[in-house]
Write the structure tokens for this entry.
Amino acid sequence: MADHPAQAAPPAGGPPVNVARLRLVLRRSPRYLAWRALDSARRRSRRPWSYAYARLLTDRSLLASLGARDVDTLWRVLSEQPFFICARARAQTVAAFRGEYPDAATRIVRQADAVLRHEFDLLGSGPRPLGARLPWHTDFKTGREWPLVYCMDIAYDELDRPTDVKVPWELSRCQHFTRLGQAYWLTGDERYAAEFVAETSDWIDANPLARGVNWACAMDVALRAVSWIWGFYFFAESAACRDPRFRGRFLRALYVHGEFIVKYLEKADLNGNHYLCDGVGLVFLGCFFRRARAAGRWLELGRAIVEQEILTQTTADGVDFEVSTAYHRLVAEAFITTYELLRRSGESVPAACWDRLERMCEFVQAYTKPDGRAPLVGDADDGRIQILGGQPVNDHRYLLSTAAIGFERADFKASAGVCWEETFWLLGAEAPARFRRVADGGAPPASAAFPQGGFYILRSRDAHLFVDCGEVGFGGRGGHGHNDILSFELFLNGFNVVTDCGAYLYTASREWRNRFRSTAFHNTVQVDGEELNRFIEPDALWQLHYDARPAGASLQTGPRADCFRGAHRGYERLSPPISHTRLIAADKAHPAVLIEDEIGGSGRHDLVWRFHLDPSVTAAIDRDDVRLVCNGRVVWFMPIASGDALSLSLEDGWVSPSYGVKVPATVLVLRGTVPIPITASFLFAAERLSRDERAAAASSLVAAC
């Protein structure tokens, strides 16, 4: 453990009361409050079970439940069960991998060697040497260590301290085990297997069942179980794993993960990715321990969750209801991985689930930019089910690579480009050949509307726009959604021009959390300094009032331009009410995009337009226009209507490409105190136009819409 003083244990009655959370809970229905009270009582009552169960589960009782005569026999039987990888096919798998990805082994070994040195780069920490013994209970970015007390008594969201519980959670997910395993298979070096044994043994010593922060969230327990099972199949036949004492201890510890998840499910009146991941863990554990009666119940429950939640948590057009591209990737990966494991295990998955998963992949295909990056829309914590490849964190095309094979879709194949490493390890050594057998010639992605999900994608010559015109997220409660209605991202003339700002942090800083989800951090119009959706209070980090309801959203395609039009009601609460309607037109003849905003109402108001530029873009004001440059390519920003009424400036801003990381960026800002109604138009184009030319281009595009 790290050499930092432990937090004083909370009182026996539980953690300190979070007043903001209490106020939010009290807004719920009496039925929900009764259920919540009963669930809380059940969790408190399980304290004695949690302290006793791990001691009562012996090798003998585990063997009896699984019908095995000794630990070594059980280990062998488990290692021969269906999984994504198989030790018997190791030589064939390694040969195929080296043939398909000749440069990957060097990267994998380098990353695995960093793990051997206990050097980790997690959640924006940068590479950090963590010492001989990993600090499982510590936010190593700040030194904060959580106490070894009953997990339900831990106050882990300490908003008055700059600490982040996600750091020990992320380390304890053990998702680096796949990298160790790949390095072991590729090299045969027993150091990687020995590290797996040492880390799991140390984790078991440091984290007794239900004690400490690493048991406080069932989702993290579930994802740790997934990582340990991947590690088992990579290292099952290694010399380091031959000790029967380790084998028994490891299997017992893994088994109690299943019992814990069942007893501490993150079920609520509206379930999100946490509950889904609980189900994923139960499917993995149920398949792994399938010979045990309890594991059969885990599998049945896990299956029910992953089959029901794909229909509940995603819209009919395939968008995750948490309205975040990063969380869409997480849940899509959860469904792909779990359904494939069920298929390999001889279990069927309903056709409706496969159909919805295909719709989810169509959304991934639509939002993927020409450079392969996903928009930074909504929250993002870099969450994964497992990490099998080396692609950048915001490249989701590996999902399309897997989907191209699973659904035999030529268009998915074309959008994926290659059979990604993630697909290889998930579908096996034959995956690249299967990928090549999928027909070529899929039609390039066109503009697409996802009206139930609230997103619209415009594609035209050299342009890709991702537009938000949906609910605030999580059933209108906020969740992982931001104040971003009518905001957009723009890729034009070969580079990312306008970007969302991302999320940056959660509980580590209420100030930064609220700034990154605020109206000012998105590419839309702010009126009188008001938020699109009011914050409930500063500590309510996952809740927003649902003020900005979408209205009249539509996508129109045509030979001249593809157009989006939409509005919201966020400022109708003001007196007098104010409306905002936005038209976005993507020119099909020229690399140009028109933004036209109609602000309706009466009186004089402070209006601010913000366009957050990608960090790679340099900007310079040239008279009334702005020249935007990236790698020698140029896009001009040109005000058209009402530009004279607004002052133009370039201001400092921030973009968070991944959790815990923020980089400086430029914000293109127009502001003014003006009478409304007002219409303001702006053109982004690869060529600078005269005032008459830009006005004519705008009129032509508006007429086409």
Observations:
- Residues 1-14 have pLDDT under 50 and may be disordered.
- The first helix runs from residue 19 to 26.
